Amino acid sequence: MTGREIVNLIRVLREKGMPAEEILEIIERVESHSPAEDGKDVK
């Protein structure tokens, strides 16, 4: 995700009432996830 996409995601989730800690956990998961973990080798 780009910085702009992360900022937009944070704005949307805050509008929906999601706590900051939960938003950070989601972003951390997305940014640290590797397609190889799904058994899919992306080239």
H and E string: HH
Portion of residues in beta strands equals: under 5%
The total beta strand count reads 0
Number of helices: 2
Structure classification: mainly alpha
Q: Uncertain regions: pLDDT < 50 for 5+ in a row?
A: none
Q: State the separation between the terminal residues, measured CA to CA.
A: 17 Å
Q: What number is the mean pLDDT?
A: 83
In helices, the fraction of residues equals 55-70%
Radius of gyration: 13 Å
Give the assembly state of these chains. Answer: single chain
Described by strand count, sense and barrel closure, the largest sheet is: none
What's the shape?
Answer: elongated
Question: Helix and strand layout, with pairings?
Answer:
Layout: H1 3-15, H2 20-32
Explain what you see:
The chain has 43 residues and is mainly α. It contains two helices and no strands. The chain has helices at 3-15, 20-32. The longest helix has 13 residues, at 3-15. The two termini are 17 Å apart. The model has no long low-confidence stretch (mean pLDDT 83).
What's the short version?
With 43 residues, the protein is mainly α. It has helices spanning 3-15, 20-32.
List keywords for this structure.
43 residues, mainly alpha, 2 helices, elongated
